[in-house]
C-alpha cells in the first residue's frame, strides 16, 4: 500500500459529552474520497477507534477499496476508549457495560447521524471490533436490533457470560456476523485469564447459526494481534459494503 492516493485521507476528530458515562468521549471520523454532504453514506462504527486507525490502517484500507475495487464510499467512526477501563466498558460483566452501550446507542449514533449524512437503516450500519471490541459489538446488536444488524468480529472475546447471553436469544435471523480468529490464539493470556479463542469463536459461531443468524466464519494462521487483524479488514469491509 504505497500508492499516495491511499494516504490522502480526511480524518476529523470530534468529541461528545456522555451523560451515561459522565465523561467525554473522543471520536475519529473518516470521510471517503469525493465526500459530498448532499449524498448519503453507509457507516462503520469501530470499537477501539484509535487502534483501528493507527494499527488496523482502516482508513488506508477504505481508500484503496473505494478507489481501486469499486466499493461504495462509506464513513468510518472510530470510538476511542481508555484502555485502563476497557474491560469494564466492553465486557458484559463490566461495571460500565450498561453505561457504555447506552452511550453508544443513545448518544454516539444520534450525534453522528445528526452531523454527517448517514443512512438511517440498520442494514447501513456496521459494527466492528477486535477481541472484547468484537464481543461488545455483538452485544450491541443483540440489545438494539433496530439499530444494528451487521457485525465484524476480529477474534471476538466471547467469554462465558457472553455465550450465556447469546444462549438466551430466541431468534437472530436479523443478524449477520463476519468472524475471523487466528489459529495461534489457543492460549491467549488476558486480564480475565487464559483463553482458547479458537474454541470460543467456534462455539459462538455455532450458537449464532443455531438461532438463525447468518455467519461468515474463518480460521487462519494468526495471533491475537493487529498484525493479523489488519490483513483481515479488507475482506470484512468488502463482505458488508459490497461492490458499487
UniProtKB/TrEMBL annotation:
InterPro entries: AB_hydrolase_fold, Esterase-like, Mycobacterial_A85_antigen
A GO MF label: hydrolase activity
Record's keyword terms, sorted: Hydrolase
The keyword Hydrolase is assigned to this record: yes
Residues annotated as signal peptide: none
Coiled-coil spans in chain: none
UniProt cross-references to Pfam families, sorted A to Z: Esterase
Name the record gives this protein: Alpha/beta hydrolase-fold protein
Organism: Paenibacillus zeirhizosphaerae
Source species taxonomy: Bacteria, Bacillati, Bacillota, Bacilli, Bacillales
Amino acid at each position: 500500500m504505497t500508492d499516495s492516493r491511499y494516504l490522502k485521507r480526511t480524518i476529523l476528530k470530534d468529541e461528545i459529552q456522555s451523560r451515561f458515562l459522565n465523561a467525554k468521549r473522543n471520536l475519529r471520523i473518516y470521510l471517503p474520497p469525493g465526500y459530498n454532504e448532499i449524498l448519503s453514506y453507509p457507516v462503520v462504527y469501530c470499537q477501539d477507534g484509535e487502534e483501528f486507525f493507527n494499527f488496523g490502517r482502516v482508513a488506508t484500507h477504505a481508500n484503496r477499496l473505494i478507489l481501486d475495487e469499486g466499493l461504495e464510499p462509506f464513513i468510518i467512526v472510530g470510538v476511542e476508549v481508555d484502555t485502563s477501563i476497557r474491560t469494564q466498558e466492553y465486557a458484559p460483566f463490566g461495571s460500565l457495560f450498561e453505561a457504555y452501550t447506552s452511550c453508544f446507542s443513545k448518544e454516539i449514533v444520534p450525534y453522528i447521524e445528526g452531523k454527517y449524512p448517514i443512512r438511517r437503516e440498520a442494514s447501513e450500519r456496521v459494527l466492528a471490533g477486535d477481541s472484547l471490541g468484537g464481543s461488545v459489538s455483538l452485544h450491541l446488536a443483540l440489545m438494539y436490533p433496530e439499530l444494528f444488524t451487521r457485525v465484524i468480529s476480529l477474534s471476538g472475546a466471547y467469554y462465558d457470560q457472553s455465550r450465556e447471553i447469546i444462549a438466551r436469544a430466541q431468534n437472530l435471523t436479523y443478524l449477520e456476523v463476519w468472524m475471523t480468529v487466528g489459529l495461534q490464539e489457543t492460549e491467549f493470556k488476558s486480564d480475565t485469564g487464559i483463553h482458547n479463542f479458537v474454541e470460543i469463536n467456534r462455539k459462538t459461531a455455532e450458537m449464532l447459526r443455531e438461532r438463525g443468524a447468518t455467519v461468515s466464519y474463518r480460521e487462519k494462521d494468526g495471533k491475537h494481534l493487529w498484525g493479523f487483524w489488519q490483513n483481515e479488514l479488507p475482506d470484512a469491509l468488502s463482505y458488508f459494503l459490497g461492490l458499487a
